[in-house]
Amino acid sequence: MLELSPSPVLSIPSLRDKVTPAEWQARVNLAACYRLMDLYGMSDMMANHISCRVPGEDGAFLINAYGMSYDEITASSLIKIDVKGNILLKPDFGDLGYGVNRAGFVIHGAIHEASHEIDCVIHTHTWPGMAVSSLECGLLPMNQTSMRFLKIGYHEFEGVVLDLSMQERLVQDLGDNNALILRNHGLLTVGRTIAEAFNAMHRLELSCKAQLAALACNAEIHPVPPKVLEETYMNYQPQTRRPYGVMEWPGLLRKLDRLDPSFRD
To answer: Which residues form the Class II aldolase/adducin N-terminal domain (predicted)?
Structure first.
């Protein structure tokens, strides 16, 4: 049973012996992603969610327990559910009884069911993301980093994402893009790996911050010719470069290991 003690750390029994080696590795990487999101200032206490597909289990994915903050999530604390929201494997949270945020299931279940090539989905409510999502102009391709998202998708706000009827429109608005701006809400990125999705969110967040800083100067923004915008966008696409996240992910894991390796538990 979960220990409810004065300790500031939750003691959750390990699930390592109850899952395949491939799933355990996915759990470690996903827990690392949660810690990194918090480390880089992209978490929202216990709100928001990151998911990843379970290797070898069609329709199953891992997601955070609703009630835990990003900086305390571990490989064993993640809950395994299917695309219909059914819980397949849940850690022993004792009297806390944590479950899954319904909005997380609706958003992530829709994308994982629609595209088997996507392994990871990240959703945030950061202040830069919420600010840009509320601007009529959306994300402006005003610098090299934001040009990567020249063809980003947009999804109109329909209220808190709790209704299953929203799933089809969400998937349609994402399309073939790896990023989506949820109007008046926040940001979403996807990736063929956890590292790729994290890279996309980190860059999208940076793009939003740069745009808000530039707009705050109340000065004219220097334009970039459409041809250059398109060429720059194409330079960021999978067919022209190595997959994102490949180089930096091992270094990010080493960073976490130096700070607090408990994400691996």
So the answer is: 28-212
Residue 79 has pLDDT above 60, yes or no: yes
Tokens 């080493």 map to which residue? 254
Pick the closest to residue 179 from 85, 244, 82 (CA basis).
244
Locate the DSSP E strands across the chain.
49-53, 60-63, 79-82, 87-89, 120-124, 153-155, 179-182, 186-191
| Fold designation for 16-251 | L-fuculose-1-phosphate Aldolase (3.40.225)
Q: Is residue 191 within 8 Å of residue 244, measured between CB atoms? A: yes
Radius of gyration of the CA atoms of the chain, in A: 19
Closest of 24, 55, 207 to residue 120, by C-alpha:
55
Distance CA(55)–CA(35), nearest Å, equals 21
Q: Which residues partner with 49 through β-bridges?
A: 123
pLDDT tens profile 191-202 = 999 999 999 999
Q: What is the DSSP string of 39-74?
A: HTT--BTTB-EEEEEPTT-TTEEEE--BTB-GGG--
The residues with which 50 forms a beta bridge, in sequence order, are 122
